[in-house]
Amino acid sequence: MPELSPLAWSLILAALVIGILAGHFGWGKRWPRAFGKLHPDYLTGLDYLVSEQPDRALDMFLKLLDANADTIETHFALGALYRRRGEVERAIRIHQNLLARESLAPEHREQALLALAQDYLRAGLLDRAETLFLEVSEVPRLRASALSALRGVYERQHEWKSALDTYRQLARIKAAPPRRVAAHYLCELAALALGRGEIESARSLLRQARQEIAPFPRAALLRAQIAEREANPALAERLLRVALKESPNLLPEELPHLSRLVAAERRDQLLAELASASRARGIGELRQLVFAAVVAGMAQAPGLRAAVETVFQQDETLRAVWQAGDGRFERIVEEIGALLAHAERYRCSECGFSGRSFYWHCPACQSWETFESYAVVKLR
């Protein structure tokens, strides 16, 4: 959607105010006569909006609120619109002004608290947002909305135990997101436990994660770490292969790790097995394996040569490098590896955020498990 100019936003705000008032007072066909009876401060506020003086317009609307309690819903609509535009300070002023009214009805007070909490969240004032969401979560009709927002606050603060507790509360009122989200919270807690050397605690948390959803690649990766710490490379290898089968997006991160777990004389066999399995599941997965192998310096392994040639011939940019080469496989792979080293390797399927590092939790849109293996290779 193209970004609107300040004038366009002002006209939208003006139309919103007039439209809500028209509906509220039932002007209908009596519009010309009714418009003449409109409070002068609203006319002044609309004039400020159209002339792109939003702060002065807001002062007029807030002044009118003190004079006419029937305009509360209009101010909620204006506050929400300001928040969506990113003008959070103005939204906060509107909702704080509402809460300052002693005569505000309880249901409007609760609505204003929720709106103000959403303003604080948008502004990044997480502590203030958390306090208000907790207060509003005690209101039955707003409980699901407040708890859902509160869960997001805890995610952004990496307070995984609180996020999990809030998830459980949402589950009790049948408003929770998919169980995979709870499994990720448990894996976050397990990873912290591993960092502290609390192996049994981590095991327990990973068992709970698998009870939420199975198979679960992330839990398998953490279990592989435990197996490796306990000098059980065979189990670690098996768990890593399970994780990679379920989530090929992990190949760029975990292929070198898997290779280190295997004895040197078995590495070519391992890569050949991975190539065969990837080819059977489609060119997309084979491409992920080849790109991971090239970046890790493994593409020259005999078990991968045919897979590398297949992928390079099917990628438009890589084919140009391939065909321009002098036929020396090793040199061409080295050149393409240099290109891939500067490529963005992952992209969020929800918001398009991309980068070279893998995240289970997108740092841009806060979605879980949406990072996909992705490489845009540009000729330099």
General description of the model:
- The chain has helices spanning 6-25, 31-36, 40-50, 54-67, 72-85, 88-99, 106-123, 126-136, 143-157, 160-172, 179-195, 199-212, 217-229, 233-246, 251-261, 267-281, 283-295, 305-314, 316-324, 329-341, and strands spanning 346-348, 354-355, 371-373.
- Among the domains are: 6-172, Serine Threonine Protein Phosphatase 5, Tetratricopeptide repeat; 178-246.
- 69% of the residues lie in helices and 2% in strands.
- The two termini are 32 Å apart.
- With 380 residues, it is an all-alpha fold.
- It has a three-stranded antiparallel beta sheet with strand order 2-1-3, with no helix packed on it.
- It has 20 helices and three strands.
- The model is unreliable at 23-38 (pLDDT under 50).
Query: Helical content, roughly?
Result: 55-70%
Shape: elongated
Stretches where pLDDT is under 50 for at least 5 consecutive residues are: 23-38
Assembly context of the chains: single chain
SSE arrangement:
Elements: H1 6-25, H2 31-36, H3 40-50, H4 54-67, H5 72-85, H6 88-99, H7 106-123, H8 126-136, H9 143-157, H10 160-172, H11 179-195, H12 199-212, H13 217-229, H14 233-246, H15 251-261, H16 267-281, H17 283-295, H18 305-314, H19 316-324, H20 329-341, E1 346-348, E2 354-355, E3 371-373
Antiparallel strand pairs: 1-2, 1-3
Helix pairs in contact: 1-5, 3-4, 4-6, 5-6, 5-7, 6-7, 7-8, 8-9, 9-10, 10-11, 11-12, 11-13, 12-13, 13-14, 14-15, 15-17, 16-17, 18-19
